[in-house]
Amino acid sequence: MSKARVYTDVNVLRPKEYWDYEALTVQWGVQQYITLSSVCYGTSVYCLFFIFLRNDRKIMFCKSGQTRSWDYEALTIRWGEQDDYEVVRKVGRGKYSEVFEGINVNNNEKCIIKILKPVKKKKIKREIKILQNLCGGPNIVKLLDIVRDQHSKTPSLIFEYVNNTDFKVLYPTLTDYDIRYYIYELLKALDYCHSQGIMHRDVKPHNVMIDHELRKLRLIDWGLAEFYHPGKEYNVRVASRYFKGPELLVDLQDYDYSLDMWSLGCMFAGMIFRKEPFFYGHDNHDQLVKIAKVLGTDSLNSYLNKYRIELDPQLEALVGRHSRKPWSKFINADNQHLVSPEAIDFLDKLLRYDHQDRLTAREAMAHPYFLQVRAAENSRPRAQ
Fold this sequence. Notes:
- By secondary structure, this protein is of the alpha+beta class.
- It contains 11 helices and 17 strands.
- The strands form 7 sheets. The protein has a 5-stranded antiparallel beta sheet with strand order 9-10-11-13-12, covered by helices on one side. The chain has a two-stranded parallel sheet with strand order 1-7.
- It is globular.
- It is an enzyme of class 2 (transferase).
């Protein structure tokens, strides 16, 4: 059995309410219809109207001294007087949601409106519970409100607005120091969520919002996040293909926080080598092939033997045999200014087949690659 090297028993030591999200009770309150902007999806006849919810009870998204904060099934959402929101424009979509820039018409403040597609209530409860538990953590996107469509009963999550620049536009402009700075900021979010017993399970550039002017980063989309329990077997159908750890691709189910560190490594490799995505598989089997062509098959076989994993014969044939490719092979005239020896060392300690050999988020923050960033942070005057 595989167990996390750090924060192993966070949820074991906490009361059940902390992680049992299925006990969450959602009290929607009395609905009042407000005429706001309609949202239609292309040729679909599915249109939503945002509503305004009123109730004499208040919702608490950040609550100190919570107990049993993994117990998302027991969570009760209590509603106070809700603001109304207007959709401004669509900014993204995913398998489980449609995302819009919106505005709070009471104070004209921008926000992000995430309309959840029809999914099991359990999944919605889990996301809300996790966002509650992480509220106020460093570089974690803030959940501001929840509203529900009057007709479809589809809930929408209201988040803080981040003036994000698309990573395909932003990343090619980043300096060496910029990359160090933003990866360090992302590590703060990952170490915090891991310390709270939560795996993100979908780390990728699309889920890292960066306001470059303010140098502000937020880790978003906690829809696939899950509470870590040692020895528990998890679904391997998580993360996006290019960022899936080897453990997912070989069906190792008792994975842990280290999955997020592989995904971070893929993201980091794409940034410093200016090769996005770094591992470009056409399907899950091909994704493992692409990894094997870089990391080699000798260490893959050692990994499989250690955890007593047998590959599907078809996948084994596809993977074949490959020697390890030196990281220096990816350096060229366009990226050499980003690829320092300490960057290579940092990357090498993240992209390891064996999840137990990868740096933890806390260990990663202490790596020499971030020496300048830590020095700059320590020299800044602290808020009183």
